[in-house]
Amino acid sequence: MAKLNRDTVIAEALDLLDEVGLDAVSTRQLARRLGVEQPSLYWHFRKKEDLLSAMAEAAMAPHAAAPLPTPADDWRDWFAENTRGFRRTLLLRRDGARLHAGSMPAGTDLDRAMRKYEFLVAAGLPEPDVRAAMLATSRYTVGSVLEEQADADPGAGHEVAFDAGLALILDGLALRQRR
Questions:
Q1: Which alpha helices (H) appear in 123-157, and where do they start and end?
Q2: What residues does the HTH tetR-type domain cover (predicted)?
Q3: pTM of this prediction?
């Protein structure tokens, strides 16, 4: 086994998540997988909630690596694709939406969120509406993925339904922009 460090623990915890689901992830199982005693994990994470938070942040890495908007981008096209990318990232992990629910951006993720916010405001959208739309689409996406990941029929038209709901949010935001 590779040297035990924070990144190794997180990577193995995410693999465990994919195998057993969020409810079955335990520090006991994780320590066993890593070939260490359970207290060794506390060197890297003081409590399970800290580990889950780090897992949520790591699970969002594909979305965090997506390009930020540029002034030449159409705000609606960019916002739609950014939201779809968020959905795709949540779907990469078993229980990805549950893992992410309740997490808050910090550090670089918060800086990226502010850049997105500033792009939308610069595109002429009212600041209060940008805040509301970013929060609404985040919660809509997490809720949609929660339902999708709980559905026994993965081909149940979730993507089409998601895009229809997203279009409604974007249509409402476009109306607010014109006022």
A1: 127-150
A2: 3-63
A3: 0.93
